Amino acid sequence: MRVQPLSRFWRFVERNYGRQSLQTALESLSDVLVRTLLVAEAVLQSTPAAQGLRRSRLPKCFQLLGVDLTLNTSFQPVVTEVNGQPSFYRSPRVEDEPTNRLKQRVLADALSLLFGARTVADELAEAIDEVFENLGIMGLSCQISHDLCLSREDLVFLMDTRRESVQTGGFQQLYPTYKSGQYKTFIDELEQLHMGTLEGGGGATEDMQRSGSQHGTADMHPIVVALQRHFNRHVADDNYSDLEPEPSDVWKGTNSSSVQQSEKQEDDLLSGNQDFYAWSQHPSTMPYLARIVTEPSVRLQPAFKPQRTEYFANVSYDLVLVKVWGLAQHCGSQVRVDDKYGPARPANYTLGVGENKVVLYVMDGGQPDPWVVNAYTLLIRRMPLADDGVVFSPATQHQVCSLKQVECEMQVAPGEPCGLYSETSVDWPSYLEKTARLPVCKDGSSQGRWMVPCEKCAAKESCYWKEARWQPYQCRYVNLPQRTLARCMAGKKLLFIGDSTNRGMMHYVMERLNGSLQHWDKTHDLRVYANLNRGETAVAFAYCGPNIWKSRNKKRVAVPTPELGMLARALALTQSKPLQNNSNTVLIVGGVHWLATQHLYMLVKALRGDHLQGIKLIIKTLGAGFHQPVEGIHCLSMNEQKKLMMQNLWLAEFARHYDIDVIDTFNITVARYKDFLQGKCACHFHKVVPVQAPKNRPPGKPPPPPSYHVEGDINAVYSEILLNRICAKYAEDS
């Protein structure tokens, strides 16, 4: 049988059926080949053998494929076979010499395609900068607000793709091209099938963790298509399909539209309620509300009266968000929520476990500046999941229940179970004895889960949550006695850089170290506490949050911050001693969502420059929060929460590479994300409260100085892990 070149067949089609038929056949052929290869990729990734292998493991390993197709009378191709070992055997027959030359050209072009030396980094960097406004780079500039953060492997992939595009030789590039936007829906469907296969096998989380440093086709598709359009804009401008999104729309989020829709609904709701009563014009009614409205409806006590300005209410544990607004009696008054500059419309308010204070300000709307004429206070107490008054009895038979994700609607790790499930058949005291025999953990990020005794694992309300403990699988953390902690901390200086969650850890450490907390505040500045542990320990805090980012030419860039130097100078002034370049100096860095690898890199670089590379450096990783739609607070979608989990993995991996100790708070907090305490962000798991002074003080004796206590079981758990890492030798000896 004589083999004919494909080009001869195409000339036959054009000559006998016309150019339109040829164009249809070529486009259909390209389409079926691309879809076949996309399906093959998805199938291969779903096989057990493929799980655990990264695409970057053999980045220059490729395979030539021979594809057999059949075309019907409408020139629609059907793949009949894919040959993984196409023959390049050189035929000795004279009549096959053209085919031999063709095979030689294919091999030569393949080698040139894969190993060409053309430099494309500069043009790719310029294209990324020009096309994309919200892409981050891991280790350089990566925030949760970015639509995607490219890893080193992603950048290598993009450079390889560009290099192959400009040295195709006799090959024709089928994907990606500037027309490949048509495959977006198809790729998304394959991704859903792939994730469903992994979830069914229980390995989705592990798969995401293993491949976390490189994004798959579904994530990279909009990027490579947009880049192809940029590089081929002289060709593509006249050929965009109406179905293909513009490059600027590829990564457009839904937050702005959802916020606008939410605001419209709130305005409609407010205007609708105003129809139920008539405004007054009498001056005496200006300071008063006609109604206080909540959604869902909350029973206020006592019953509302315009002249009464303080109310309280109890709500269930499951109510984490309430919409609050007030209706003024006077037509010239406005009602604002939480602040005199707050929204003059219904506003969502997060309800942390315990007491939440909501203030409605009645404003004189006729003044050029906000003028408060009255204020109404609502104290809403969100009940804990279990009754605080119920006493746990170890002698009673209980189920020992395990928890990784408390709610299925907040299932950031699809492959992990949600809800409580029974893990062991032993009783709670026996379980505690078993875990007490485990070795002490040698890091602060050992994988674990929450363990809690319950009457029934199927009913979370039956659990004794005060007994809940975070338990790693292979080791344990210890609660160091106060005296042991004092010996460990003698001579140490603790430097905390971070946001309010890091500050909460600091206050807990101060209380544990001193036995009480005498001083605290919600500082967003610099604070130094130099007289802890009988003057032998100093603690300093510098607030550092998302404002580390500054705008420059509409691009987000990281600007090195002076917090480290500020802390060093402040401690030197108070102690008259410089920081020591050893483990007596401990730097703890942490944030809810803003902390990224570039911040760690900047800190490592700053420490080396200040000859402090020998200190103990610890990071508190990311945490749960920002999951409720609240005024002025960014609310993360479910996909963004999953992306946050991956960012947390990258952050921890980056830290370990630089020998930074990791306190992994993400899994600890996400598992119990509804247990947040008061605060708009729903990210605080601590609360500082005053300690009541004893009432039986002897006459004539002056009152003791005010004392405070840090509440929050979850904050206590990861703060104790921090103490385990600072005092690792003492923990192991215990």
UniProtKB/TrEMBL annotation:
PROSITE patterns hit by this protein: TTL (PS51221)
Residues covered by the Cadherin-like beta-sandwich-like domain: 297-382
Pfam family, one: TTL
Residue ranges annotated for the NXPE C-terminal domain, each copy included: 470-525
Compositionally biased spans, kind Polar residues: 253-262
UniProt-listed InterPro entries: Cadherin-like_domain (IPR025883), NXPE4_C (IPR057106), TTL/TTLL_fam (IPR004344)
Location of the region described as Disordered in the Swiss-Prot/TrEMBL record: 238-267
Source superkingdom: Eukaryota
UniProt xrefs under PANTHER family: CADHERIN-LIKE AND PC-ESTERASE DOMAIN-CONTAINING PROTEIN 1 (PTHR14776:SF1)
Protein name: Cadherin-like and PC-esterase domain-containing protein 1
